[in-house]
């Protein structure tokens, strides 16, 4: 049977907010080139929509990571499933994520990527669930929406690999 999904953020709301954040990033990086790192798979829809709206020279790369063990018992060690194709030396890097939850994935990833000598490294997320943060030191530079502690799907986010293709953010009703 199909799950019931309640709309939390409509397609129009999401797209409007992405345009605002893209305008902010375009202002902040004026005169520079930006190297976007999309965190697969969840970040892919947001990365595309954001990249289309940036008024800057943009390059793109992709990375896929997974946590060891299950989420609740995660040690914070993250396995790189697919690494970047390009080096980061001298680049202004913007990591693009679907959601920051505990912050474990990103706190690990930022440390790893800093070792590769980028000129700068910042973090942009579609959603932030600050109530769930374990790694308090993770600084999110650009957030489209701060949401309550609910499990959301759509716009790249999945529930058992489903619903990534929904054009809005929804909550799966029990
Ligand atoms: P964390 O910040 O390391 O805890 O993990 C973030 C990752 O957990 C995200 O990239 C998502 O893949 C997943 N995640 C966290 N919260 C949700 C949610 O509400 N819906 C779908 N995936 C989620
Ligand atoms: Mg993810």
Short description:
With 174 residues, this protein is α/β, with parallel strands linked by helices. The chain is 22% helix and 33% strand.
Describe this structure in words.
This protein has helices at about 10-30, 45-55, 105-115, and strands spanning about 5-10, 35-40, 60-65, 80, 90-100, 120-130, 140-145, 150-155, 170-174. The protein is of the alpha/beta class and about 170 residues long. The protein has one domain (about 10-150): 3-Layer(aba) Sandwich (Rossmann fold), CATH 3.40.50. The strands form two sheets. A six-stranded mixed beta sheet has the order 4-3-2-5-6-7. Strands 1-9-8 form a three-stranded antiparallel beta sheet. The protein is globular and about 50 Å long. It binds inosinic acid (IMP) and magnesium ion (MG). The site of magnesium ion has 2 residues, from loops.
